[in-house]
Amino acid sequence: MATKRSRTTRRADAQKASARAAAIRQEQERKERRRRSLIVTAVAVVVLVVILAVATALRSAQDTTGVAAKTVPSGTVGRYAVPAGPASAPVKVELYEDFMCPICGELEAASRTQLQKDIDQGKVQVQYHVLNFLDRSSSTEYSSRAANALAVVLDSAGPAVAKKFHDLLFEHQPQEGSAGLSDAQLVHYAVQAGADRASVSAGIGDRRFQQWVDNVNNHASKAGVTGTPTAVVDGRTVKWTSVGDLATKLQKVIDAG
Amino acid sequence: MRWADGLGLLSRLVVGGVWLVAGILKLPDPAESVRAVRAYDLLPEGIVPLVGHALPVLEILVGACLVLGLLTRLTAVLSALMLAAFIVGIAQAWARHLQIDCGCFGGGGGRAPNATAAYPWDIARDVGLLLLSGWLVWRPRTPWAVDDVLLPEPA
């Protein structure tokens, strides 16, 4: 038993003890920090998940796509299309257009005259699906307003007047990115096409068939239509490289009967 | 290691900034985001609307966390996973000759006539962002981060 230790030894022992104490203290502090970090992380994660869930639910509520339309225009074909030409026609062309889409305007300019002849002769029924996915390309949601106006005209004046109105809107197509035609101008062209002013102006002004237009757009998206113009014949999308190419291919399909 | 600090901070700001912009541009039109997701023709229709509605919010949250330096490692992992998913999505669209706009910064995944020319650039951008996200997963400690205050690391 060492009863007498040198001063140096005792000092060394004391140092060792205090070092050990410091190490224990450090270890405790480390654990404490770790615990705190875990709690802070967990709280932050929970907050973020709640924000994600709430915001997603809000966006979902804001998106009325697919909600059944309270008002549906009469005279449509297949619920979502405006027909031009007799149902008995041997060829059916489903055409997807947006009134704001410049290439649609080019296609119309390239094919309108011949197409109208073929429609009049009963060779083809064109089924116009008018979309509103380019609403952000005008400052007034022109795509929606024009598509709604077409539905209003179809509903009140029938498919022949609707076709004329459709053609007039493409003949006077506004610049992409502009405000588009005003409601008053839409009414003006509807009347020019043969519709009754009193029976179309209210529906054009209050966008009577907006939800139906949204649903046409949704239907097109689900049918795999990712852009306009898109032409579908016998359930198959016509592939094209230029507007002239698409017009030629459509003409061939119609001529083949 | 000063340059590593600088790279970490830069990664946070660049990746986070891109997520923020991408998410915010998609906010005005929820239906458009749904159509953009659907255009990739990859997910079952049942979950397409949910993904379309949630994705922009997730992008904004991840972006904000990265810019702030909050939960950097966790959000960098999320960022990397999302980028990997987008790269797969774009690559399969390319491989299947789908002519769609990537819809990365809004836009409804509409048909893009020059899609095939755009795909490589979209993928290159996402690979770049993926690398920066990977760096942050590896080295989540960066200067001027909320993490430095909230989660002090043992020295």
What do these coordinates show?
Chain A has 257 residues and is of the alpha+beta class. The mean pLDDT of chain A is 94. In chain A, helix 2 runs parallel beside helix 8, helix 3 runs parallel beside helix 5 and helix 3 crosses helix 7 (210-222). Chain A has helices at 7-62, 102-120, 142-157, 159-171, 183-193, 197-205, 210-222, 243-256; strands at residues 82-84, 91-98, 124-131, 230-233, 236-237. By secondary structure, chain B is mainly α. Chain B has one domain (2-139). The longest helix of chain B has 25 residues, at 2-26. The two termini of chain B are 15 Å apart. Chain B has 6 helices and no strands. Chains A and B meet through helix 1 and helix 7 of A and helix 2 and helix 3 of B.
Structural key phrases:
heterodimer; A: 257 residues; alpha+beta; Glutaredoxin; 2 domains; five-stranded mixed sheet; 59% helix; 10% strand; B: 155 residues; mainly alpha; elongated
